[in-house]
Each structure stands twice: as C-alpha cells, then as structure tokens.
Amino acid sequence: MMDEDDADYERATRGIDEVDVLDSRGDLHLQVGGDVEKQPKTYLVCSKSLARVSTVFEKMLYGGFAESRPTDTAYRRWTVELPDDRLEPTELLLHIAHGRFDRVPEQLELTRLYQFLVVIDKYDAAGATRPWARGWLEFVQEATLNPLLLGVAYELGHLPTFEIMMRKISDECLVDDDGDLVFGFAGDNREAYSYKLRNIEYLVPPGLLEDTASTRMKLLTTMLEPYASLYATLKHGDRCQSSPQDPTSGRRCDSILLGSLIRSFAAQGIDLAAPDPAAAYRGSAATLQAILPRLELYTSQHPGVLMTLPSSPLPSPFGQPPLPHFEFAPAACEQELEAALRDGLERSLVLKGQVIFSQPRHGEYLWKQASKTGLTK
To answer: What pLDDT, in 10s, does the model give residues 95-121?
Structure first.
C-alpha cells in the first residue's frame, strides 16, 4: 500500500510529466512551482515570446547562462526550472506572452493582482500589463485598508494611489505589543489592525518602515506639542497669577488643570508625563487627532489679572518658531485655555498638511513603471 508521502511524490512527478502546451511549435519546456506547489506543471512555450516581454527571460535564455538552449538539442529537450514561482500568476504571464488574451481576466482581486505583480517584478515584465493595468487598478483601488495596495501601486507606477496609501499608512498605523508597526488586518480579526508591515515581503518601497515610523512620530509630536508645553509649564512654573484677595487661587487653579490634564490623557492610554509622550504612545496619529478635542480639562474660576507665560521649554517640531505664549485672564481661565489649545491644534493640522508622505526617491521608480504600464496620467 502506498503511504501519504509516496502519494504526494507520485502526484508531483505526474504533474511534471504532464505538459501544458501554450505553443504547439514551442521550443522550451518550463517546469514551474517545483518547490512551492503540491503539483507543479510543465509548459511548452516559445522562448522568443518570453524574451520579448521580459528582459530577465531574454538574458536568461539568450545570454549564455546555464538556462540557455543546450547545444545537443537533438538528444535532450530544452528545459528550464522555475521552482520558486507560483503556478497561477506565472501562467497568467505566459498567457500574455503568447497572445492568449482570452485567458487574461479584466479584473483581478487584490491578492491575486499582488501575486501576479510579484512575478512581473521578478522578470521585469511590467510592459506586459499595459492593456489591463488601468482596469486592474481601478477594480482594487478602494481597498485602502489592505497594505498590499501600496505594493500594487508602486509596481504599476500609479503615483496618486501610492501617495494615498503612504499617507493612510503613516496616519493610521499602530505599534503592537512586539513594537512593530501594524496596518491592515491579519486573519479574520477585524477589530484592530494586526498586519505587521515588516511581513510584506515583495514590492516594498525602499525605506518603508523607516519612513513610516519617522512620519508617524512627526505627526504625533506636532499634535501633542501644545499639551506637552502646557504640562511643562504647569509642572515647572505658575500659569495663573493669584489675586490679592486669594493668594493661593492661581496655584489651586494650576493644580486642578494639571490633574485633569494628566488624567484625561491617561484615560486614553497616553502618558503625558513620559520623557517623550509621542514615543510612548502606541496608537495612531488619526486616533490621537480624534481624541484631543474630547479631552476634559478643568480650571477654577477666580478673579485676577491678565498674565503672559514664558515660552515653552520644549522645542517646536519642524524647526518652526515657538508657539505663542499662553495668555489667560484668570477670571475666564477655562475659555482662554480652550482658545490657546484650539490655536495649537489648528497649527498642528497646518503642519500635518506640510508633511511629505511619499519620498522623492520613490518618484523615479514610479515614473519608470508608469511609462511601461501606461499609468502616467
């Protein structure tokens, strides 16, 4: 009786022996998927057709490498093994190369498109996608919660979609318990982002993790700066000036505000007292932006005079001038506090709009790919 291992071996062997004829006059046998598929396949193809659509195949088959045509073809057939390539995306490339356009789908689900473009990238065959690239992209470009769309946009050279994804990933990515940046979903859990960006293996723009981490930190620092500045002022100095009638009124107001400031942030999982609150925060910039207007900060009402605070001891991000001094009339302390923090929040949003999400070094590759795929507009 044949055991399971023998059965698997027989299926694999039978798969290699069976030939899928893409060109009846073909001169090359491609053995695909030997290391990654349970049942690999062999294709009879035209070597010149492959060389026309792929510079890698051209060099491989006609560049004097080991895969080039053997000199003794009268005694053995020309065979090239592609053991690491998946069958479905490789077969789609072979259909395109051999003009079998009826086998090319007008639409591809995002994961299938991504896997196909991995093969396209490996064999430098982006030009082969030109008749379908725009339709394929339009079908998947709403799937912005899937980080694979970034790689698809990068390989097809579509700058608008690439910039949308870079902005969304930088704005919405989280830091998980392992300290990794996550965006999108892994498995069936849709309650919180769980897909580790470092697990994206192919079609990754150079510096993705570093750029995303840096941009996220800039966004967080910009939004937290007014509150960190207020915290430092309350901790190290006097914000409110006491009135002659109540010498402790200013200190009492500051204590109430400091306590509510720390408690409000702590309720959202943010340690404003940390040496670097932005670095300690694990949530996304988008979540922080939604949280800040809802913070509950309290002051005490007491009579007094207008006062101006010294400049914040914390540097402002992006080399911008320091924030305007907080100016509070203790008789209307809460209103002045809200106005000052609102001004800081508005300023942070302006600075956020100036952040560059897609890096200039990506532009050259995007343009090169777009010229091949036809997505220059």
So the answer is: 999 999 999 999 999 999 999 999 999
Place of tokens 């932005």: 278
Alpha-carbon torsion (141, 143, 144, 150), positive or negative:
negative
User: Which residues on neighbouring strands pair with residue 328, listed in sequence order?
Assistant: 307
Show which of 68, 102, 136 is a domain's final residue.
Answer: 102
Instruction: Please tell me whether the overall predicted TM-score, pTM, comes out greater than 0.85 for this model.
Output: no
- 252 and 269 both lie in a single domain: yes
Dihedral of the CA atoms 138, 142, 145, 150 (nearest 10)? 30
Domains of the chain: total: 3
Task: Tell whether 6 and 68 lie within a shared domain.
Answer: yes
Which tokens go with 351?
A: 């600075």
Strands 28-32 and 41-45: antiparallel
Phi and psi (nearest 5°) for 157? 80, 30
CA 191 vs. chain centroid, Å, equals: 19
Render pLDDT for 276-325 as a digit per residue (tens, 0 to 9): 999 999 999 999 999 988 888 888 765 544 344 444 444 444 444 444 44
Given this model, what pLDDT does residue 325 score?
43
CB 162 within 8 A of CB 174: no
- Domain span at 297: 217-353
CATH of the domain at 45: 3.30.710
Q: Which stretches of the chain are assigned E, i.e. beta strand? A: 19-21, 28-32, 41-45, 79-82, 174-175, 181-182, 307-308, 327-328
C-beta neighbour count of 231 within 10 angstroms: 21
Structural domain includes residue 212: no
CA distance 367 to 377: 10
Same domain, 251 and 329: yes
Directed axis angle between helix 110-122 and helix 87-97, to 10°? 70
For residues 4 and 29, membership in a common domain is answered with: yes
Residue 131 inside a domain? The answer is: yes
Length of the chain counted residue by residue:
377
Q: Is residue 60, in this structure, part of any structural domain at all?
A: yes
Please give the residue that has the higher pLDDT: either 351 or 28.
28
165 falls in which pLDDT band (50, 70, 90)? very high
| Cα separation, 56 vs 52, whole angstroms | 10
How many CB atoms are located within 10 Å of the residue 247 CB? Answer: 9
